[in-house]
Task: structure prediction
Amino acid sequence: MPKPFFLTKTWPVILIIWAMDMGLTFLQVRMQGLPNREALQLGLMESVPGTLITFILCYWMLPYFIKHRKMLLFAMLTVIICLVTSWITVYASLPTLCNSVRKVMADPQACGMQTMFPGLFIGMLFTSGTVCGIRFYQEYAKTMIDHEKLRNTHLEAELTLLRDQLNPHFMFNMMNSIHVLIERDASQAAEMVLEFSDMLRYQLYDASRPAIPLQQEVIYLQNYVNVENKRRCHELEVTCNWEPHPPLCYISPLILTSFVENAFKHVSQFPDRPNFIRIDLFLEEGTLFFVVKNSKEHGPAASEAAPGAKGIGLANVRKRLTLLYPDQHFLRIEETTDLFMVYLEIKINVL
Result:
């Protein structure tokens, strides 16, 4: 919705106030019996200096003092400038003012500096203060808009960087998996290459969009699990419970991938005990619940592990969640001596 012109431009406000000031002065003295010429002259003498001072304050001094954050000094200078300008205006126009006053007043002694100066000073200060207030609002709004644009640009660049870091990380892991499988079963390796090409196509085209249907993300995760199962020759007990018929809703692409990838990367390899991964994904009242658990070999818990031990995958997804879903997600990562669990909630709009 467009803003009124007086909230985006200052000079129309100054001209309107100047016209009103001159017009009111003209009508006031004209109604007291002065001819049009003298009434117009008095209106110009009173309004023009104030208008010029207002232009100088708004377009020259105010931006400078806002930039240097010295608004108190600006306020003090505004009062001083209005005081001096009012005094000079009254002093220079006093003969004309008094001559006009004598024509309409019975007591000509009422015309003097002490009677003319206060009214002009207060009027000029009020006019300049009002217009400078509007101008300050405009400058502040412009600064906030510039900061918001800069912030959005920074967020977009950071999200792009995080996504670019994620894709090569995934690609290197998968290429290594194919290399391992070639030595075991060339036919399955060939099938994996085809499936992997579909996954890359998803990353290159679908994942480049800011949001995709949840169903596409689920299909991608299912393909990922299938490829990993083939690579490991079904040595793991992988249990997946996907939302059977997810409604139409959108999610940021590849936001869930790192958790599944991390589970396959760090799952235990016990020769005499079950090694398992469990994945649960379901929707409930506009909230996506995603839980990933995997067995792990005995080691220090999360609170004892060295900082940064989990690599860039989980660190990236934490940043992406913070940037994309501020105050709309909950992430908890728990680690014990033999279990690693990720619990994620994301509020998404179901269409």
